[in-house]
């Protein structure tokens, strides 16, 4: 059996400094990621004691209550409905914009900046502006169209209105990723297609979409996870007295309400664990679909 070579003093010194430099990251991951995740799992099986101390183990009681709670199922449905609006529309609109803004035309840099601006705006400022636009009495939208629609107060359309804000907010981010993917496609493919007489639309569907599928899959997967964990949008746009809140609040919003407003951390932990399992199932399905729909050139 071959003996292991002993490290020289220089190699030991380099290894020590290597551990020293990665230690802050490792410590940060343990404190900010791993420990909270483990603690959440443990608390989901407990009943929160007085003042957050003296937790009592209750087994699956929190999960049984959550599965029997109509509010939890409604919040999951609301989250899925929001994802159905934000993800496909955010991806399709961003892709169309990316194709046009990837061309060497005058003013493309300006329009790229304009569409990306929502990503750098503070969520509170975005919520304030859209609440004013949607205001039933004084909002710009109702005044322009001379209507009296309760965009965020009508339970039937409030979730659509919130979804529109989500699409508007994420288009710029998706567009930048698509432009990056488009620039990786060799121009030879398009030149050969033009020689063969393929139209621009034919090139888009036969060349751009297949070769852009890795970028598209990445965007779709990350945006699905982002949409299923949405919180700040509902929290800042919808007031607690809003009659449509129950038809808009997401699963994370309900988790926040029980954990930080009502102080029931055990039940809140159970809610978020159910959401985590649901996201894991969706992610596994998407990973299986990757082999069928994603093409690597």
What do you see in this structure?
72% of the residues lie in helices and 1% in strands. With 297 residues, it is mainly alpha-helical. The protein folds into 2 domains: 9-57, no CATH class; 70-293, MetI-like fold (Orthogonal Bundle). Strands 1-2 form a two-stranded antiparallel ribbon. Helix 2 packs across helix 13 (265-293), helix 3 (70-101) packs parallel to helix 7 (158-182) and helix 3 (70-101) crosses helix 12 (251-261). The longest helix is centred in the first third of the chain and has 35 residues, at 9-43. The protein is globular, with a radius of gyration of 25 Å.
Characteristic terms for this protein:
297 residues, mainly alpha, MetI-like fold, 2 domains, two-stranded antiparallel sheet, 13 helices, 72% helix, 1% strand, globular
Short description:
This protein is an all-alpha fold.
How do the strands and helices of this protein lay out in sequence?
Layout: H1 9-43, E1 46-47, E2 56-57, H2 61-67, H3 70-101, H4 108-120, H5 123-134, H6 140-145, H7 158-182, H8 187-195, H9 200-211, H10 213-228, H11 232-237, H12 251-261, H13 265-293
Antiparallel strand pairs: 1-2
Helix pairs in contact: 2-13, 3-7, 3-10, 3-12, 4-7, 7-10, 10-13, 12-13
Net shape: globular
H-E order:
HEEHHHHHHHHHHHH
- Helix/strand/pairing class, anyone? mainly alpha
User: N- to C-terminal separation?
Assistant: 45 Å
Percent of residues in helices comes to over 70%
What is the H level of CATH, i.e. the homologous superfamily of the largest domain?
MetI-like
Q: In percent terms, what proportion of residues is strand?
A: under 5%
Weakly predicted, low-confidence segments:
none
Taken together, the total number of domains comes to 2
Assigned CATH class of the largest domain: Mainly Alpha
Main beta sheet strand tally, sense and closure:
2 strands, antiparallel
Question: Total number of β-strand segments?
Answer: 2
Query: Biggest sheet, strands in spatial order?
Result: 1-2
